Amino acid sequence: MAEPEILFERQGHAGLITLNRPGALNALSHGMVTALSDALRQWRDDPSIRLVIVRAVGRAFCAGGDVRTVIEAGQGDPVQKSFFEAEYRLNAAIKAFPKPYIALVDGYVMGGGAGISVHGSHRVFGEKAVFSMPETGIGFFPDVGSSFFLSRMPSQIGLYCALAAVRLARGDALHAGIATHAAPAAAFDAIVASLAETDDVDAVLAGFIEPVAPETLGTLDAAIEVVFATGSVESILARLDGLEGALAEWGGRTAAAIRTKSPTSLRVALRQIRAARDLEFEDCIRLDWRIACAMLDGHDFYEGVRAALIDKDQSPRWNPGTLDAVDPRAIEGHFVAPLDGDIPLP
Q1: Which of 117, 132, 171, 269 could form a disulfide with 212 if both were Cys (CB 3.0 to 4.6 A apart)?
Q2: 3-state DSSP assignment of residue 169
């Protein structure tokens, strides 16, 4: 019998969740999403559970949602929308969870993995933790409520992450506010044991944290602010292309990365992240639902997943293939409620 993809146990007064799908980098299946939602619903109202801890087995915390399975269900299959509805409702439940929710993160935390960690109260990153929202590279967009925290990062770092699908190691993640603490991954078991016996999460974590400097950010903040603060995707690319001196290499590399992404995804993500600055979290989730429904009816998401995860040729054929060919009316269609209405939230 195959092992469960996600494990639940009680340790002291902690509810302990373990992602247990290491062969798939703990990508979230529909069943994992449903089981996690059910556990949080029970533990929310259980006075014997005072906090929740989520951790993972293997070399990744969670590399995202299982979008390959979503795509293979076939365009128009109800399974597709039901997965995203369940996932987004879970993200909202984590954000609103009334008890401490501590994510112990080592390895990749991407896409849907950010949705089950960053919305919690405490995010402890180990040495190998790497954060990314890579969705523009698969013809999708930064979803799972990520626009809420991306739009609130300092110095336009969130928009930089969204458009270029940048990977942030743990020092950069701390600097950007993705992580709240850095601690050795070897200490995670001790952290769990200590949290299970106390109510003072911050005091426990203070005994394990270690100082970590940003790997790439900090010195880049001013340039990121100037490049990404205003204008269209084209104007952002022009600013990157025009950088000189010590910033020229970074600018060229970042511009090249952005140019590989879906033109539709880039235009949608730019508008989405900027709109999210003025939205409450639940409104960000509703916006995600609208965009996801539109993209499930489109082309690029299927093509992006094919190129990245199915055929693995890394050569997506976007349609439209250039920024100037993207119809503004098509972009507008991603921001209106679908015919069957907005997502119902708890």
Answers
A1: 171
A2: strand
**Is 65 assigned a catalytic role?**
yes
Domain hosting residue 309, numbered range: 1-346
From 135, 172, 282, 288, active-site residue: 135
Amino acid letter for position 316: P
Q: What is the CATH number of the domain that holds 27?
A: 3.90.226.10
Point out the catalytic residue in the list 64, 107, 111, 112.
112
Q: How many domains does the chain have?
A: 1
Name the residue type at position 168. Answer: L
Q: Does the global pTM surpass 0.90?
A: yes
Catalytic residue (choose from 143, 288, 300, 303): 143
CB-CB contact of 250 with 244 (8 Å): no
Q: Do the beta carbons of residue 101 and residue 54 sit within 8 Å? A: yes
Q: Which two tokens stand for residue 275?
A: 């709109």
**6-11: strand order across its sheet:** 6-11, 14-19, 51-56, 101-105, 122-125, 181-182
Please tell me which residue in 65, 111, 120, 137 is annotated as part of the active site.
65
| Backbone φ, ψ for residue 57 (5° rounding) | -100, 140
Q: Is 135 an annotated catalytic residue?
A: yes
Rg of the Cα trace of the chain? 20
* β-bridge mates for residue 17, sequence order: 8, 54
Q: How far is CA 60 from CA 21, 34, 168, 178, 275, in A?
A: 10, 21, 14, 16, 31
pLDDT digit string (tens) for 209-263? Answer: 999 999 999 999 999 999 999 999 999 999 999 999 999 999 999 999 999 999 9
